[in-house]
Amino acid sequence: MIVTTESKAQNCRVMVAFDDRHDALIFVGRSSTHVRQEYIDSFMELLDEEERGHATTIQMQQWSGSPDAGRWVHKTDLKLPAPALVRVAA
Fold it and tell me: CA 84 to CA 54: how far, in whole Å?
């Protein structure tokens, strides 16, 4: 059975890579535009100051394939929030 709710789904997620631990999922969005608008808020809310200090890259990945048989594909690297932004938000 094939279920399609959109003509072309664009499911994206944001992963943070750290220098001292495993990668972490911080956001899942319906499109790359949605992800770009929201990932910084998730980064600030979900990670504490120490974790943010160990973050090395933020990657946007997009689902490729059918819902039950596919994989996450690296789409682009996103900008790490500036340390000054991190201090102001805290």
Answer: 15
